[in-house]
Design brief:
A 5-stranded antiparallel β-sheet has the order 1-2-3-4-5. Helices cover 41% and strands 28% of the residues. The chain contains 3 helices and 7 strands; from the N terminus they run αβββββαββα. The protein starts with a helix and ends with a helix. It is α+β, with helices and mostly antiparallel strands and 188 residues long.
Length: 188
Amino acid sequence: MTTMDIIKITLNLVVVYLIGGLLLAGVYAKTSPIMYKNAIIEKDRALKKMLPEADKVEKLGDWKIHEKAAEYFAAKKGEETIGYIIQSFGKGYSSYINVLIAVDKDFKVLKIDILSHAETPGLGDEIETPEFKGQFVGKSVDQIKLVKTETKDNIQAVTGVTISSRAVTDDAVKNGLAFLIKTIKGGA
């Protein structure tokens, strides 16, 4: 192989990579605004699902947990605030677990929803089951405590999924509620 052959191969590769890069940039430029709009629509849908009786959900502010940006909202029916929704994150076994928590005016949990995670399929994703999420309903921040035994007062860990269960319970939900209570009641 001569020097000229090496130069030809190198130039061919450079041209192929440049064309590929330009194509990828064009696709990204075309799809990025669409993905952004879809993300906003999906977020609005998720918020409405948390408190369906609310006429509107207004953003109250931003906060950070685990260096992740999160938001909190007031759910209103007419001019009356009927509850609050807070986004929170918990550090799971293999990912950060993105959680939405809806509470009433007394800060008792109405519903939680797992928006995203990358926990182990078939194991860590047990945190998405209605049985696990349903345990939070009606609980105050003081009752949000993970235990490994059967309980009606606290949250029972999913067997074999203690790290993911703890990430949702003690990390995301409890910390999110504590922040929300401090911010709303404390006027911060």
